[in-house]
Design brief:
Layout lengths: L1 H22 L19 E8 L2 H7 L8 H17 L3 E7 L2 E6 L10 H18 L1 H5 L10 E8 L2 H30 L5 H8 L4 H12 L8 H5 L1 E9 L6 E8 L6 H6 L11 E3 L6 H13 L8
Parallel strand pairs: 5-7
Antiparallel strand pairs: 1-3, 1-4, 2-3, 2-5, 5-6
Length: 305
């Protein structure tokens, strides 16, 4: 009787010992990890930006002031991110930057900031490299590009809309300056320093006049992608006369500073919106990829819920 009780006591003691060992005595280091859960009930914006892209553009012979190959590659990389991350409702890109807006109530990675930022950044960066040849052909990638990133939280849809307007206004300001600057350098035979001095203190009207009078360039006729950047939307669209509705990611270059844009896409920030948009734009690389995938797999449309 006494022996059985002793064995039972020893067995229980051993169990406790094994349980402690399973956790490891080194596990205390986890206590140093900071909680980076983002504030709930807010819009999450992840913005990535090319690091030292002026040099990268020079080393890879980007066309000045805008390289359509580079912009299309940025858009395609962003599309890959958006396609794999259902909680992104809209993205906006220009030059070497891209912003991804998450649904207000997203629980993606439990709203952990580091997880969100690193996942989006790594997916974008790897896609940029992976699809390089699709857009640059025989132009060899000399070295890996680098993108930094940040997260900003906004409490209201109005703030998000103002953010998107701010980024698009930035496109116009920068592109008008760059168009005038490179016209002076490439066609006017000025040095970069001389061109910068020539444009110092000028306003938009001055630059438009300079382009038209000296170089016969009507800035209003420049490509919309150069002047407005690219907006990626998840919408239910009708692509043909058969009026078949399909859920798609579309890339457009419309003016977000005008109220009619927000009336047309009034449910843009609503993740469950089923509003149908009649799309009559071009079949871009992004749309064509989705069409081909549907034909190959004959699966259901992209899940945008």
């Amino acid at each position: 009787m006494f022996r059985r009780s002793l064995k039972s006591l020893t067995f229980k003691k051993t169990n406790v010992h094994i349980s402690k060992m399973a956790k490891s005595s080194f596990e205390y280091v986890k206590s140093y990890e900071l909680d980076d859960t983002l504030l709930p009930n807010t819009w999450i914006v992840v913005r990535i930006d090319g690091k030292c892209f002026h040099k990268f553009a020079e080393h890879h012979n980007f066309t000045k002031p805008n390289d359509l190959r580079a912009l299309n590659l940025m858009n395609y990389a962003a599309y890959q991110v958006m396609k794999d991350t259902h909680d992104i409702c809209v993205a906006f890109g220009q030059s070497d930057e891209y912003s991804f807006i998450f649904n207000k109530n997203t629980a993606f990675y439990k709203r952990r900031g580091a997880k969100l930022l690193t996942t989006i950044n790594s997916k974008f960066s790897s896609s940029y490299v992976f699809y390089w040849r699709k857009f640059f052909g025989d132009e060899i990638l000399q070295y890996p590009p680098c993108f930094d990133g940040r997260i900003v939280l906004y409490p209201s849809a109005e703030n998000v809309i103002d953010y998107l307007k701010w980024r698009q206004a930035d496109v116009h300001i920068n592109n008008l300056y760059n168009t005038a600057f490179w016209a002076l350098v490439l066609q006017g035979n000025l040095s970069p320093g001389q061109a910068e001095k020539r444009l110092c203190g000028t306003v938009s009207a001055d630059k438009n006049e300079l382009l038209f009078k000296e170089f016969n360039i009507n800035y209003n006729k420049e490509k919309e992608i150069f002047k407005r950047g690219t907006i990626l939307l998840k919408l239910h669209v009708q692509l043909d006369v058969k009026k078949k509705t399909v859920a798609s990611i579309i890339d457009i270059h419309e003016d977000m500073l005008k109220e009619k844009f927000w009336l047309k896409y009034e449910n843009l920030l609503e993740p469950t919106s089923k509003k149908v948009v009649h799309y009559n734009g071009p079949i871009t690389d992004i749309l064509n990829d989705q069409i081909l995938n549907r034909e190959k797999t004959k699966c259901s449309p992209i899940n945008i819920s």
